[in-house]
Design brief:
Elements lengths: L2 H17 L22 E3 L19 E4 L5 E3 L4 E9 L3 E10 L2 E13 L6 E2 L4 E5 L10 E9 L4 E4 L5 E3 L9 H6 L8 E2 L10
Parallel strand pairs: 11-12
Antiparallel strand pairs: 1-2, 2-9, 3-8, 4-5, 4-7, 5-6, 6-8, 6-9, 9-10
Length: 203
Amino acid sequence: MPSYDRALWALRTWLDSWSGIGRIAVGVVMLAGCAAEGTTRILSYYGDWTGVRPGQRPAPHTGLDFDASRGDPAIAARDGTVVRVFVDGLCGNGIVVQHLVGGTFWRTSYCHLDETNVQPGQQVKRGDVLGKVGTTGRSAGVPHLHFELRQPGSESFDRIDPLPFIVGCFDPAKTVTYSTLEASSAKPRPVLTYPVWCAGSIK
């Protein structure tokens, strides 16, 4: 791993252990997390070469790994439609949800689930329980939720860093609608909440 990556990883680890706030993201988001609403810990960031256990990955990480206990609910980060429920060697038990944003479809993926309780074609709301966090697939035996955001590409959906799109913890009492948040953006973009419960959230 290049020395810059090692230094950034060390800084992120220190911040996580010290405050639980999350990460410093160079040039995009200065502080992200649930600081005002509780906390959720990120074990591995998008683009990281390290995983949930010590050691180097064979390729950069394609999503965010959220710390959670086995059996914790994995929740929809945004309203949408379940387009795929599957099992494979990498993701384990996985779910893909499609979201319509400004006339364009985006997708979120949820991996390493021990259980899934949705079906393809099912409509879900932000905060709906999709399944239970587990250790299926290539999870290194560590219970966590691997979460991806995919934007529409020329012929497929391209993975991008979900963190800049996450506005905080799921709160059923929030009254700010997605359309209001999206209207403040120059280009329509998804507005997501964390896909696992944050500390202090109503469960």
